[in-house]
Specification:
The chain has eight helices and nine strands. α3 packs parallel to α5.
């Protein structure tokens, strides 16, 4: 069942599958508590969840600008907030918990993965991370999961959120050489700030060694987004995505 979102006064109302919304409700509520406890980020409060009508009301936060907008505007604060996003994600991985009956594993067999398992954000990108003006607090929204997963995933290896963010960072950057170098700098900032707050045993070597495991998900993402475009825009889109993928694959986080 497709989720629908609309703004009703000071709330954001989501309607859809009750099972999916229940998980999003619990993740959002716990994320709000975790953000307040850590002081590293802000997540909206849950106002109401009605499983019978399939409705979830959450707080509408004002004055938000996404990190994607900061990137497009060449805002000088972007590196600082990318670093804060890395710190916040480490806190989420270390502290987010859900009841056993709401645990949903990332699809696939990860028994050979060396990365620690944790509760995931599920769609950690520049589009879901915001700066709240004028407080300049970091805000994280959309605690469901990436649409291509077709289920409200809650648990998986740490690398999923890390590389999901890094790939989106590379595919969001312009193609000029100067911006390619800037993408590497931002990716490095994100990784090092994540590692500075990590409590699960993640290392630079682990981030690099687990990188290719996310490739099947990225392929699904690209094909999904390709189908959303008119046929005459698909080839240029695929070329840009191929370049972004190769740049992301060449990235290697530096020493801690």
């Amino acid at each position: 069942m497709k989720e629908h979102v609309r703004v009703v006064g000071d709330i954001v109302r989501k309607t859809g599958d009750s099972g999916f919304l229940e998980i999003e409700c619990e993740k959002t509520a716990r994320a709000h508590e975790l953000g307040e406890e850590s002081g590293l980020f802000l997540a909206p409060r849950v106002i109401r969840f009605d499983p019978d009508d399939g409705e979830l009301d959450i707080e509408r936060l004002s004055g938000l600008r996404s990190l994607g907008h900061l990137l497009n505007d060449e805002d000088k604060r972007l590196p600082s907030f990318v670093g804060k996003a890395g710190c916040a994600l480490a806190a989420v991985h270390a502290g987010l918990r859900l009841p056993d009956d709401l645990t949903s594993q990332l699809p696939g067999d990860w028994s050979t993965s060396q990365a620690p398992s944790c509760f995931l954000h599920g769609d950690f990108t520049l589009a879901n991370i915001f700066v709240q003006e004028p407080t300049e607090r970091l805000v994280i929204l959309d605690w469901s999961s990436a649409p291509i997963l077709d289920s409200p995933v809650t648990v998986g290896p740490t690398w999923f959120d890390i590389h999901w963010f890094l790939y989106y960072l590379y595919q969001s950057m312009p193609l000029k050489p100067r911006q390619r170098a800037r993408a590497d700098e931002l990716a490095e900032t994100f990784c090092q700030e994540y590692l500075s707050r990590d409590k699960l045993g993640v290392t630079t070597e682990l981030i690099e060694s687990e990188q290719t495991r996310i490739t099947p998900f990225l392929k699904d993402l690209v094909h999904h987004r390709k189908r959303e475009r008119p046929w005459f825009k698909r080839v240029p889109f695929l070329m840009r995505q191929s370049l972004a993928y190769s740049r992301w694959r060449r990235f290697s986080p530096g020493p801690q």
